[in-house]
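Sanity check. The docking grid for pyridoxal-5'-phosphate depends on where the pocket ends up, so I'm generating a full predicted complex first rather than guessing from homology. Inputs follow.
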Amino acid sequence: MSTPEAIRTQILALVKEYHTAKFAPKTFDPDKDLVHYAGRVFDAEEIVNLVDAGLDFYLTANRYAERFEAEFAEYLGLSNALLVNSGSSANLVALTALTSPKLKDRRLKPGDEVITTACGFPTTLNPILQNQLVPVFVDVNLGDYTAIPERLCTAIGPKTKAVMMAHTMGVPFHLDTVTDLVKKHNLWLIEDNCDALGSTYTMKSGDMNRIRQNSVSCPQISPRLTGTFGHLSTFSFYPAHHITLGEGGCVATDDDDLARIARSIRDWGRDCYCAGGESNTCGKRFSQQFGTLPYGYDHKYVYSHIGYNLKVTDMQAAVGCAQLRKLDQFIARRKKNFRKLTEILKPYADRLILPRATESSDPSWFGYVITVKDQAGFTRNDLTTFLETNHIETRNLFSGNLLCHPAYQSIPHRISGDLTNTNFIMNNTFFIGVYPGIDDKRLNYIKAVFNRFMAGERVS
Ligand SMILES: Cc1ncc(COP(=O)(O)O)c(C=O)c1O
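Predicted complex below; grid placement will be based on this.
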């Protein structure tokens, strides 16, 4: 009889064959195929890993999760990467970590203010509300869609304790301003890096500007990955993102104390930090005093946070390990598609605001964001209807203005200044894809469809 390992080898060889048979590349047919705004890009390796993890039948996080966390932390150059089941969970874990009693007088308390934007994804904002903190909304620039730096400076009040914002569509927000404010006012910084894996920013004053307490200062001025500037950063691995685990996300930090708190919040709130299969990592499993529990109560069942269970399965992590190997090529293709779309759309810059990077940044673009100017002679919806009718997928810039949505009508909040651009974006902005599944054929097709629209053709 064959050994399990020999059978595994046969199965995985068959999986490769299956991939070739099932997912053979097809030629693009614009009459039938959509030009997606985003999507998973994979080869046989992802499916092989998935089945390999399935054959282990460990089910919960195991060898692939450990590998992904180690490799992802190494990619970022940080000491900790914690897998969670979504980018939304990553945001929830990261912000909730800052409310931990373990942070003593540095902890965020109900009523403290957190600076953010209203023009974004709901689950950047939701953890602020879920933790009874008060969001302070700052308007964003048209073109880069990140917080206006001067508005950030004026937004800070006596109750402001943190900044939590996204690098919108891959564009790094103004990190020189933000890290200066964070240092000056002793704030926490969470970078929602869900849309910006691979984006870089070069600090004007070099890495001396680092805000992380335990990082080694390194004076040369060089680009650094977003997601490495804040006390904590978050990532999404939903299929629309730079790499995918299906559902998945990550919290990253260079601060080991914050990592331990975040892990506790991810893992039911438990105080114990044993990895799966271990049982006495602290060496004091039955000899500690916690709360009003009897002395020596089993550390495995001691809860120091009001936590959740937001972990991933090993099957998800297995897919992620294969995706991570392709990350550099994915980022390169996103940048190339961005450049090509800019060439295609430059002639229409009189009617469209084309996307641009913030100063000192090199975005790993999430999408190609377009704003229809007021005097364009057509509306955003005229253009998106035309594109969609011609099989080019479009998406609005997420919520437009979160404050206009039913769920947020009566949330406690403060607006610093006004949200003029945010409201303009709600009405005039959308994006199309730059993801690596968009090849030159699709780019040429996009060009032809835009040319027809700009020449006056409309959906009848
Ligand atoms: C900026 C931002 N933050 C958070 C999320 C949430 O990620 P997930 O869909 O994995 O929950 C998204 C989702 O696209 C996002 O764009």
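Relevant for the grid: DSSP finds 13 helices and 15 strands in the chain.
Also worth noting: The chain has two domains: 56-322, 327-454.
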